[in-house]
Amino acid sequence: MKLLSVAVPCYNSQDYMEHCVRTLLSGGADMEILIVDDGSKDQTAAIADRLAAEHPDVIRAIHQENAGHGGAVMTGIKHASGTYFKVVDSDDWLDEEALQTVLAKLREFAQMDQPVDLVVSNYIYDKVGTRRKRAIRYRRAFEANKILSWDEVGHFRKWENLLMHAMIYRTAILHESGLELPKHTFYVDNLYCTVPLPFVRTLYYIDVDLYHYYIGREGQSVQQDTMIRRIDQQIRVNKLMLDNVDLEHIDNLKKRETILHYHDMITAVTSIHLILGGTEEHLEKKRELWAYIRQNHPWEYRRLRYSMLGRVTNLPGRTGRRLNKAAYRIANRLFSFN
């Protein structure tokens, strides 16, 4: 059995995927690299096959009809043989020195009777055109280098969430959770980050900058115009997040707070992009989203609607919407999130 399986979903990734995979190869024989060619039309499949032939003990090339990012991640989970599992998008990469630090700790966990369920590390917003790259670190939420229960987890800042880039799940947790990511849908990483969390019992934080999250490629899913164009998919994922986690009945307070914090942030992101869309149709979809939450998740609605983010993104009238747009621009300049 391998130590760490890494799924690399690829769709028309010929220009950057090899750089991603080369950084993963630095992990050596402990790694299982699953390149999932998601029905690419360029040279992605050929590159994947070549890399697999060059490194047959580490790399597997898997080809499938196009199923979208979620479908590719699910294929990676299905084929993973590693004790632990991580997703690295094909335009991102891992820091090689940090990877060695993480693997050394995973080796320790793999020998335990009860291996740690979730390992967290830092990630870097590697935004095109910016000299100072912003790192997301979790020093306030987690004590480093200690196996933690949820009761020992601290608080996340408003801009902090356990994004996919920070997370390494024990593979069995993903299976136990029954995680199913919808095909042909963007933004499913929000489901990947939250649906398995109720099944996580222990956590461990390694304070190294492992993941480089590349921002700035044309047509990238997190670009503002792209998110507005795909807002129906964002709404779908937002609803599925709430539908798939019975937050009210999670007994552990810290676990519940962590997931609620994530739901709060994503619902605010959906709401602000509907405001940025600016048409009456967009505003009606925003009203429908909040009505859906109120009707189907009344316990969570009260907490989301009257949180700071819920109040801000529901400021009334044109003045409220102008304030939202201005706040969004300021936040984006500060945090470079798209």
Give me the secondary-structure topology:
Layout: E1 4-10, H1 17-25, E2 31-38, H2 44-54, E3 59-64, H3 68-79, E4 84-87, E5 93-94, H4 96-110, E6 118-127, E7 134-136, E8 148-149, E9 167-170, H5 171-177, H6 189-194, E10 202-215, H7 224-229, H8 231-244, H9 253-277, H10 280-296, H11 298-305, H12 308-312, H13 317-335
Parallel strand pairs: 1-2, 1-4, 2-3, 6-10
Antiparallel strand pairs: 4-9, 5-10, 6-7, 6-9, 8-10
Helix pairs in contact: 8-9, 8-10, 9-10, 10-11
Structural class: alpha/beta
CATH class of the largest domain: Alpha Beta
> What is the C-alpha radius of gyration, as a whole number of Å?
20 Å
The backbone outline, from C-alpha atoms, is globular
| Corresponding CATH superfamily of the largest domain | Spore Coat Polysaccharide Biosynthesis Protein SpsA, Chain A
Strand content: 15-25%
Number of helices: 13
Quick one: biggest sheet?
10 strands, mixed
Determine the N-to-C terminus distance: 38 Å
Second CATH tier, the architecture of the largest domain: Alpha-Beta Complex
The average pLDDT is: 92
The number of distinct β-strands equals 10
Low-confidence stretches: 334-338
The oligomerization state is single chain
What is the ordering of alpha helices and beta strands?
EHEHEHEEHEEEEHHEHHHHHHH
Task: Please bin the fraction of helical residues.
Answer: 40-55%
Would you give the CATH topology of the largest domain? Spore Coat Polysaccharide Biosynthesis Protein SpsA, Chain A
How many structural domains can be distinguished in the coordinates? 2
